[in-house]
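so the lab meeting is tmrw and i was supposed to have these ready like two days ago... anyway. pasting both below. for each one the top line is the aa sequence and the line under it is the structure tokens. i havent really looked at them closely yet so no promises
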Amino acid sequence: MKLKISIFKYVLPLLAAGLVVFAVSHALVAQRAEPQTPPVPPPRSPFGDTVAGAGMVEPSTEASGTGNIAVGAQLPGIITKVAVRIGQDVQGPVRVFGTTVREGDLLFEVDPRLTEADLKVREATVAVNEAQVGVAEATLRTTRDQFERARLSRESGVVSEQDYVTAEQAYLSAQAALAQSRANVLQARAQADQDRTQLKLLRVRAPVTGTILQVNVRPGEYVASAPGQSLVLMGNLRPMHVRVSVDEEDLPRLILHAPARAKIRGDVNQAEVPLTFVRLEPYVVPKTSLTGVNTERVDTRVVQVLFAVDPEHPLVRDKKVLVGQLLDVFIEARPGDKPNRN
């Protein structure tokens, strides 16, 4: 009995005290743990005074704000042929990245069979109307001869006034029929030309010389003529542009044509890509996080500066700089000699 009392009186309090000491010591050791070194160091500016910003790589094509040309279909239908795909050149040689096309090269084709059949009907209609013109011309010659005879006979009193009026009206009707037949020919030819134009529209071709970035359509798919569709995405990559968003607060320190460098995010070597100034867009826009989503949160307002990337740079040739990629861009704030501060 006395043994049990001693256990509750001395052993349990000592055990509780030991647990408290262990918990406190563990917390102190955890707080003293050294912070882990990040696997990739943050980018460092190569300049002393710098204006920094995030840059989005885009084609140099003059398109709607991004440089990417989204090619769609003007007429709805079933896709029967896709002439390009990522990794294959139109002329035959295989390329690992992108497909280079020239202006006017075929990209894809919508099913043309219905339009081709309708064109044959239109062309046959043209032939029928042209034959009707020949008939109308022959009728006109006959009625003109009859009218001339009636006019001469009327002057000599052989033909009555009623016969003369009848011959005259027949001649005028033949003239109107010939004019109508010729108008029918023009109409039929215009309808045939309309079908030929539709056939051209069904064969969608490259609007500019550039590189195929995405192919979002396959044979057998139905496409509609909806605005904003991007069945084939393309753009000119020689050179590529970098669209840099500079905060409006940095505008007083921004100097155009100043040296600029871009760094690839995640590059442990911190390799630099020289940039060449292209232009500054003189319209301040809301800043977004540049993820491509239209509902991004607006933080501040920025001015967009475009720089060109040398297509022969090793990082560009090795496909380390791609369209849509985010780069860390640093622009020297005071190029050349710094002014004397004394």
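ok protien two:
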Amino acid sequence: MRGFSVYLYDELQIDYMINMKNSGFDRVFTSLHIPEYDLASSWQVFQQLIALCKDLKLQLMVDVSREIMEKLPMSADELSDLGVRGLRLDDGFSIMEIAQYCKRFQVALNASTITVDMVRELQDLKVNFSHIEAWHNYYPRRNTGLDAFFLLNQNTFLHEVHVKVVAFVMGDQQLRGPMYEGLPTLEKHRNSAVFANALELINRYSVDEIMIGDPSISRKAMRQFESYYSEKVMMLTVAFNGDYVPITHCVFTSRPEIARDVIRLQESRSLFYNHQFTGTVCERKIGDITINSQELLRYSGEINLVKQHIPLDAFVLKIGRIIEEDIPLLSLCEGQQKIILTEVTEWI
């Protein structure tokens, strides 16, 4: 599952929600206890959000505190009947209260504060652990996001006790105030690419599900998620040095054996053997796209995506470059990964 955030201080962006649903997102996160906004002014928008999530078949998770639950104009059971599928419980709820909410809701607890003792107490109460998730916070203020080593260690523990882990990445369009510095879980992900950060959380930090923290992401990021999860294709945005239309119309596959310095696109030799490409002979930098010239005989036409700095080779031509925000995806590319190169002009 993948989710995105919708906040209650403005009109609902219905078109955006539909686009996210069509891009493969199936969950919505919202909060009823953001300090800058009061419950009374948010309640009508909240009810509209519940109805829209039901119509779009999106699972709605709501961030609540004990104080907010006491102020709600309806009971928890009525919330469930209305269509709220999950509660993200702020710190302060008792173990007994958590166990009770698990009977009606998917319950998200603070992933950083779950302990062995808490797990044992919930087990003693015969709680169904398929109804419990561990959600890491997002961190609106710069320099306060989590350390990567801490995140991995905590997630390792959470998986040992069979709890699903969820974490946030920041958006790349409208950022949420009042800080407007992004809403990531990991500090290292602040001000960097949405899709690459999401994939890194899953592939390297044992996160099971990602949520977009900020109110919106770009059309390009939506398409990357859709391509990867629906079509199993990693989409890389590139800028070519000339007219390389045939290359952008191909879905390539990385070779099953992973090279240290480059990603080798295995169909490229048969497709472009003996083709005349113009390019530059130069030192190859991380993110460069190269093709082997005819002088390399049976290796002619092979396209490589450069992962490490490499000295120049007289028979290797640089023909383009992956845009900076997509370069982190190179280190996350595994063997036999489907890849498509999309020109940057498509997103302008």
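from a quick look at the 2nd one: The chain has a mean pLDDT of 95. The radius of gyration is 23 Å. will dig more after coffe
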